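Encode chain A's predicted structure.
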Amino acid sequence: AAAVTAAAAASSAATSSARLRPTLPQEAEGFDEVHYEWLPRQQAAERLRLWLEEQKASTRVEDLQPSDWFQERWQAWQKDLRTWHSKHMEYKSRMAKHGRAAGASVDAASTLEAGTTGLAVDDWPLLGEEEDPITEFLE
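Encoded structure for chain A:
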């Protein structure tokens, strides 16, 4: 069984590296006559097409390289991700500086019942004037 598996793997690697595109034999290729013993020509062609699609979906392509377009888009994404992460970390550090958990909001009902907001002038950004930078990308 191991020999069969190794042979199948070698065959798969050879097929993917050679980029073979098998076709049905045709008289135009120099054959005197073409006989389809198991299936009529149309059914054989369909079966070959389905087999090729299955091979295309399941065979690993060893030398596949991303294009320049993809590389540019990937680098732009990485830059944006670093920016978002740094802004989020700045926000979390500001929240920690004020003694609040990131994402916590001022509960208006409880502050009205207590009769005071409990916030100083320096705390105005915490009242919603400035939001978590990540939320602008979620809208």
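The mean pLDDT is 75.
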